[in-house]
Design a protein that fits this description.
Elements (H helix, E strand, L loop, with lengths): L1 E5 L5 H8 L2 H4 L5 H12 L6 E7 L2 E10 H4 L4 H4 L11 E7 L9 H15 L5 E3 L6 H9 L2 E3 L13 E3 L7
Parallel strand pairs: 4-5
Antiparallel strand pairs: 1-2, 2-3, 3-4, 5-7, 6-7
Helix pairs in contact: 1-3
Length: 172
């Protein structure tokens, strides 16, 4: 069973270890910088909500939900001007598995489907994800979880492939 627990300050050493792993370093930024962003989330300086996801009680990775409308008034727009092209009511999600040995086993897709169900139950109807298009493993997992490329944005978002969840599970 997939569950999500809010990330706490006590989890930062665990997350620091994950951020330093090669399969994270390939797609995330500098671990210390990323940890600073996540600390801002925990301490309320950023509205993004970070979670540790668990399967059957074991910590297996990290996920977060961020709010498009909140990011439009931040410095992120300078680096990612395509944020202005997104629907303000949408939320974005990110997900990473802690252990590289668990990649390509369907775990990420399973967790992402569960996270989408959680977000939909909270009233979010537009759920996006923005992998690097070169990260084909992630793109494949996201497609498997029900995300599709936003065709109107193809070629307009630099090193991000904008994908939106298409409700195929009958979840409102």
């Amino acid at each position: 069973m997939v569950t999500f627990r809010p990330l706490k300050t006590e989890d930062l050493p665990l997350l620091a270890g994950w951020l330093a792993r090669p399969h994270w370093r390939e797609w995330w930024g500098d671990p210390e910088t990323e940890l600073g962003y996540i600390r801002d989330m925990i301490e309320g300086r950023d509205t993004t909500q970070p979670f540790i996801f668990q399967i059957d009680g074991a910590d297996l990775g990290y996920t977060q939900v961020w709010y498009i409308k909140d990011q439009l008034a931040t410095d992120w727009v300078k680096d990612y001007p395509w944020l202005r092209l997104l629907p303000e009511e949408a939320v974005g999600v990110d997900l990473s598995l802690a252990d590289p040995h668990q990649l390509s086993r369907g775990i990420g897709s399973e967790v992402l489907r569960a996270f989408v169900r959680k977000l939909r139950s909270e009233g979010h109807h537009r759920i996006l994800i923005d992998p690097d298009p070169a990260n084909q493993r992630a793109v494949k997992a996201y497609r498997k979880a029900g995300f599709q490329e936003m065709s109107e944005l193809l070629g307009r978002t630099d090193d991000s492939l904008l994908m939106e969840h298409v409700n195929t599970e009958g979840v409102s």
